[in-house]
Design brief:
By secondary structure, the chain is an all-beta fold. The protein is 0% helix and 47% strand.
């Protein structure tokens, strides 16, 4: 079943390939950096459009 999680990554994404993003582990966890296909990312509504980093929705294919 597909799922969606919030991640933080660079505002400027490559045209194709993968990009490293950071996902929060929640509940005091340290989170983790993961490489994901840029095609699985969508800018989240809560992102303000400013800065070096953006908030994305990561759409899982699993």
């Amino acid at each position: 079943m597909p799922s969606t999680v919030l991640v933080v990554g660079p505002r400027e994404l490559p045209a194709s390939g993968t990009v490293e993003v950071w996902a929060d582990a929640g509940s005091g966890g340290s989170g983790q950096r993961i490489n994901v296909p840029v095609t699985d990312l969508q800018v989240a509504e809560m992102d303000n459009g400013a800065g070096t980093y953006a908030i994305y929705l990561l759409h899982s294919r699993h």
